[in-house]
Known about the structure:
With about 350 residues, the protein is mainly α. It is built from 23 helices and no strands.
Amino acid sequence: MIENLVQLSRDPSPARRRELLRSIADMxxxxxxxxxxxxxxxxxxxxxxxxxQVDTRARTEFAERVSEAPQAGHALHYALxxxxxxxxxxVLSRSTLLDDENLVEIASHRGQxxxxxxxxxxxxxxxxxxxxxxxxxxxxxxxxxxxxxxxFSQASFETLAEKATADSELLNAMSFRPxxxxxxxxxxxxxxxxxxxxxxxxxxxxxxxxxxxxxxxAAALTKQKKLGRSLERLETKxxxxxxxxxxVSLDQVVCVLADKNRILxxxxxxxxxxxxxxxxxxxxxLKVNAAPVVVLLRALELNEEAVRAVANLRCRRLNLPxxxxxxxxxxxxxxxxxxxxxxxxxxxxxxxxxxxxA
Length: 358
């Protein structure tokens, strides 16, 4: 691995720079435990230099991978958050390493796309919301007003009420806010259509019968993505049971999940049948080096259609050339099932040793 990195570092071509970034990112993200300060600084320095040498697509791919990585450092997330919009969006919308001061600063000097990304975060303090309302155009205001994880100050609600007089979408979004101050609500009630007026009036009256479905709707809007993810997870578990019953084949399930880019669900299904940790399967799928996933797919005795679906998924997700898909298929064809299963048994034994040691 180190020799490969050294060779890649000697080639300044864009393709080799991208490959080097992916390889170092693999090393960086595969480590389950947090790095000590010295190693984190070293990794951050190397990655920051490499990010300046690759194109937007490669930086965006990296930002997607690192946006929720617990071992990533604040400096790296902050640099990505200040990059162009495609790169910054996953970090601005999901990173837990950016504090309120960072978000307020970015909102004050970056474009509206950056503000929209911040406005979608699960939780927003009043300080950050104040900055979004102060610097955001109406699309930003609609998004943050519809975010039930956002806290608003009195001043921000006043600004929203003023802007809403000329924006019906913003006005409607305000009618769903259970936290709107009564004085401001009275100002906008007369501007609302009948259904929205009744909705806001119910919120203000705190009528349990009327307000319960409204809070359910608010919760649904806030947690829509998380709920959808939970439902997908349940669906995958149901598919696993269907495979065990013989109603469908594992090959069919793999094809469906891979074609829909559902990497985590695919990892769940494969880990269940391989009897190894889900995190290891996810790592194998997302590694540029195809060797681990080739062993996994051959050990599970998947057919060529399923293997090709996984290879296509990797190319899409990691921005790999089509030649890498063919390379994976070649290696899969060359590997025999008994050898793959021996390698899998070794992985399972290593996993059991780690768990017993823990």
